[in-house]
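Researcher: Quick sanity check before group meeting.
Model: Go ahead. Protein one:
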Amino acid sequence: MNRRVEKFLSTVCLIFALGPTIASAQSASTAEELDCGNRRGRIVGSEFLGSATRDEIAQFLATIGWPSGGVRSGVSMRRLVYTTIDAHGTSTVASGLLALPTDVEPVGVVWFGHGTSAARSGQSVPSTPGLGQGPGVAALFAAGGFALVAPDYVGLGLSPGPHPYLHRATEASASLDLLTAARRAAQEEKVILPQSVYLTGFSQGGQAALALDHAIETELDSRWRVVAVAPIAGPYDLSGSEFPGLTDGSGPTNSAYLAYLAVSYIQIYGTESVSDVFAPPYDNQIPPLFNGEHGLEQIAQILPPPRTLFRPDFLAAVRAGTHPFASQLRANDTIDVRSRAAVRLYYGDADIDVVPRNSQVAAMAMKAAGVQVVAVDLGASVDHPAAFYLGMPEVRAWFDELAVQR
C-alpha cells in the first residue's frame, strides 16, 4: 500500500501544471486581510493550482487503479483563502480546494473532508499543490461533473495554528464558510454551483462529514441541501470506540493519534495541562511535536505505547467517565447526527487506525433514530489506507446514481 500511495502522489505531480508555491500564497493572509470582522466566507486569496484535460484525467485514474470510464470533463483547481472562525469563535482565515469541471456545468457539489494531518502542509491537506488527497479526489469527482470543495481545516494549510483536531464545531464552521467562498469564487468564473451537496470524507474527514451534515440540516436558512452522506473510516464514536480502541491497541500510530487529540482538547477546552495528562518526560516533549512542522508518522516513531505515554490516573478516570476529557470526547462524537439524507458508512475490517466499531456503532445509533443508514464493510483484509482507495470509487458511483435520479 505504501508503494501505491507513492505512485498516487507522484502521478498527481506529473499531470497537474502546478501554480504558485505555498510560500508565495501566504501573502494572502496579511494582518490587514485578517481584520475581517464577522464576514465569514469572504475570499481573501484565490490562486490557480493547475488543470488537466479529460484524457489526462482518464490516464491518471487508470494509473492509480480508479475507474476512468466516468470521465466527462477536464478539471481546473484553485486554492481559496477565506474568512472563518477558530475554536474560540475568533475571526481567522482558512484555506481549501475548489475544483471545477471545465467542459460541463456542475451537477452538484461534492464536499470532501481529508484525513489526519499533523503537518500544516502535509500530504493530507487538499490545497497543498501536488501532494494531498485533494488532487486525486478532484480528478475523481470533478471529472465526473461535480464541483469539488475540500477544506484544509482551521490551523492547517494557510491557516494559522494550532489545528483543533477532531473538533466537530470548527470542522463544520470551516466547511460551511468554504462552501460560501466556493460559491462566490465559482460565480466569478461564471459558474453557478447547484444547491445539492454530497458529503464524503476519509478518517478525520469522515467525522467532519457528519458534523457538517448536522450543521447544514440544523441551519434554518441554509442554502445547501444534503443529498447523501458517504464518509469512509471515520472516528464517529470517539468516546466509546476510538479512544478506548487506540488505547488498548498496538498500532504503530496509536500514540500519535491519541497525543494529537489530547493536546488539541487541552488547547480548546483548557481544563487540564499537559502534565496532568502525559507521563514524564513526555509531558515536556509532546507540545513541540504538534507545532505543525512534524508529520504524524514522524511523531509516531518518537512516542512510546499509549499506556506509557499517558498518566495511569488520567487513563483510569477517562475510562470511568469521570475525567473532563471523557465529556469532551462525547461532545465531539457524531453518532448523534440525525441526517435527513441517505447515509452510507464505509469501513474496513482490518483497520487498526480507526476501529470498525466506529461505523458499526454509528450506524446502529442513527438507524435507531430513524436515519436511512447502512454500514458498508469493504472487506476483511481492508486496512485504513485501503479503505480510502477502495471506498472513494464506490462513493463516486453512488453519487452518480443519485445525481442521475435528480
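Researcher: Fine. The other one?
Model: Protein two, sequence then structure:
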Amino acid sequence: MSTQKPKVASNTIRRWRWLGVLAAILVTTGAVYGAYWAQVLRYHQSTDDAYVGGNVVQITPQISGTVVAIGADDTQFVKAAQPLVRLDPADARVALDQAEAQLARTVRDVRNLYATSSQLAAAVQMRQTELGAAQSDLARRQRLGATGAVSGEELQHAADAVKTAQAELIAAQQQLAANRARVDGTTLQDHPQVRDAAAAVRNAYLTLERTELAAPVAGFVARRNVQLGQRVSPGTALMAVVPLDQVWVDANFKEPQLAHMRIGQQVLLTADLYGGHVSYHGTVAGFGAGTGAAFSLLPAQNATGNWIKIVQRVPVRIALDPREIAAHPLQIGLSMKADVEVRGAAGGARLPQVASNQPAWTTAATGESDAKADARVQAIIVANQSAALPAPTAHALPAGEALPAGESRPASHLVANVPLPIAARHLH
C-alpha cells in the first residue's frame, strides 16, 4: 500500500502537468487565432454559394422568312459577324429592285420639275414682251386717234389685245408660281418625293440584309432550335451565342456579411473545376437590388416550441480579370468560392448611386447596313440626275411703258421677278 501511494501521486502530478501543457497550448492557439482574426480574418467575408454568370445573346430574326441555311450548331465557336442563319432572300431582292427603280423615276420626275420651272420662267418673259408690244401699239393708236387717222374700232382692238396679253401673262405667272411651290427651298436630294423614295430603298435594302442573321459577338452556340425549311417570324428564338470572355460571378452572401462590403473591394476566387491551385482576382461590381435567396438554419428550441430562423442571402456581382478568364476559361453555371477583403470600407457608401454614361454592352457586327444603304441611295440619285441647269433671267414689265387709263399692273407680275431657287441652278 505504501509503495502504491507514491505511484498514484506521481501519476496525478504527471496528469496535471499534461493538462497544464494542453491548457497552455489552447491559450496560445486562442491568442494566435485571436490575433490573426483581429488582423486578417475579420476583414474577410467568404462564401461557397457562388456561380458563374454571363450573357446569353439570343439570335432572333427581324423579318419573316424561310430558313435556307444554318451556319453553326450547338457547342461550336463562332466569330463576331459570322453568318448563323440565312433566310430565303428572293422576295427581298424583288422588293429592293422595285424600290430602286422607283427612286430612279422619282429623281427624273423631280429633275423635270426644276426644268419645267425654267421653261415656265421663259414663258413668263415671252408674255411680258408680248404685253409690252401690245401696250406700245395701243399707245401709238391712241395718239393717232386724236387726229382722226385711226378709227374707234382699231383702238378697241388694240385695247383688247393689251387685255389679252395681260391675261396670258397672269396665267403664265401663276403656272410658274405653282411649279415653284413644288421645288422652292429644296435641292434635288432633299426634295420630299426623293427623300420618300430613298427611304423606301433603305427599307428594302435593310430587309434584304436582314435575311442573313450574323453573330453579334464571338462565343459558343447554345440552344439551337431552328431547322432548315422552318418558317420563322420576328422574335422567334433561333439559337443563342454565349460569349465566355464576358462572364462574371454572382456570389450569395448572408445579410450580416454585407455590413462592410463595398463596390471596388478585392475578391479572391477559386473554381471547383480547377481546384485551389487556380485563383481568380476580381472586384465587387454591385449588389443585387431585389430579394435574395432564403437560407434556412437548423431548427432551434425555445419556450414556445420549434422554430426555424431564416437568413436572406443577397447576390453580389463580382467582375473578373479578362486575362485570367482567357488563361482558364469558365462556363456559365460553374460553382465558385469567393473571399472578399472588406478592409477600409468605413468611408464608402454601401449602395452608391452612380449612373454610367456608356452602354454596358455593344456590338459592331451589324452596324454597317445603314452606311451601305445610304451609299446605294446616293449612287442611284447621282446616276439619274442631270447636269447643272442654268436659271433664266426674269424680267419685269417694260420700263417706261404706261398702261391705258383704267388699267393696272396685276399683283402677280411680281412672281416673274422672283429668282429660281438655288436648287434649280446647282443640280449636280
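Researcher: One line on it for the slide.
Model: Helices lie at 4-39, 90-145, 152-180, 192-209, 322-327, 369-384, 422-425.
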